[in-house]
Amino acid sequence: MSNEFSRRSFLKQAMLASAAVATPGVLMARGKVLGANNKVNLACIGIGNRGGEIIREFAKTGLANIVALCDVDMGAPHTEAVLKMFPDVPRFQDFRQMFDKVGNQIDAVTVGVPDFSHFPITMMAIGLGKHVYVEKPMARTFNEVELMMKAAAKHPKVVTQMGNQGHSDANYFQFKSWTEAGVIKDVTAITAHMNSPRRWHGWDTKIKSFPAAESVPSTLDWDIWQMQTSNHQYNKDFVNGQWRCWFDFGMGALGDWGAHILDTAHQFLDMGLPNEVKPLKLSGHNNFFYPMSSTLLFKFPKRGNMPAVDVTWYDGVDNLPPIPAGYGVSGLDPNIPPPSTGAIQPAKLNPGKIIYSKDLTFKGGSHGSILHIIPEEKAKAMASKLPEVPKSPSNHYANFLKSCKGEEQTRSPFSIAGPLSQVFCLGVLAQWTGETLKFDREKKVITNSKKANELLVGPPPRKGWEQYYKV
User: Which of 128, 202, 244, 313 fits 13 for a cystine, CB–CB 3.0-4.6 Å?
Assistant: First the structure.
């Protein structure tokens, strides 16, 4: 589609949004018009695999009207379930056409598409005044996340939420209350681990080029799938979750699971951005897809009265972190949604974290799993001194919709989720380049590697997609 089409669509929808706000007799929430029956009119972009799971969760809340469905592979087998759920809802393959045709009926959008394609969809939606729920991590490059944060700040009436759903569950409220009560304090080290098998495990790490071109499925618009990227020909190992394997498209194990493991520590310990990222181990490193296993050290400086903290990330089936005495059993959070490849397989050590403070050690799982003080004897001794943890008033999906209605505030808005996503962007660059990265937290530049610093922005977008990089 041409840049002129996108420009005309953008201007048209901006005028429609202005006209809607001026219409009397409708319910307003943060400057947006709500849909019929006091529900949020929701357009869903990406309706298969994880995108389909998101739609079903939003539908369960009873707070949304699904008014549009958009997918570049509309009609493919993985989209059929959602199409059957909403047989009469308008369907589109190009999100720009969707906004052009029915934008005046949309209050908010969900973005459940590959990591690299979060950015243009989100930027257009925010520019049109649409509330946005986007899957984690926010975007593939550091600069894209930065622009998304700036766009959200420029449009303060637009509600934003990143889809790390555990950030509305028990661990969020526990970490918050335990930090405020001084139970969690003086943290100096965190171990984060995700040691389950990944899609690229077993691939040939001596790869010299991208896989050979294959015939494009009749249901797929390959041109739109590529969004702002270029120089890729269709291959089955690029789509339907396989995109996560490649540096060009996804964020590997770190981007996939980091936001479910490190989110609360990052927020409530005010970690911000690291000043150094060091790859300690990159097994099977190559220039195309993620290593078979990685150990990354993120160094965060002293913040106010909080000491400097080292975060060490471990991924890979045979790259387990050291476990402290008294650790006990590694549980698997039953609330983790299963991947499209099937049920999550319990690992030698299930995804989670170990938090070391001056006086206490904590272990925790992923998503909404609560923390436990270890060893067990210490936990029992402290049980009567621990603060009462409030229950969540809404899950992550209802929290977003209620925020669109002006009833709550999102728990993972771009102002909070953005710096967290940028931490993962820096970690991915260390995995990609194999270099230790020195990072200036104030100027937001890598100071010791020209190549890595250029990758903060990445290659220029292909023609017709430049407009989304302007705030």
Answer: 128
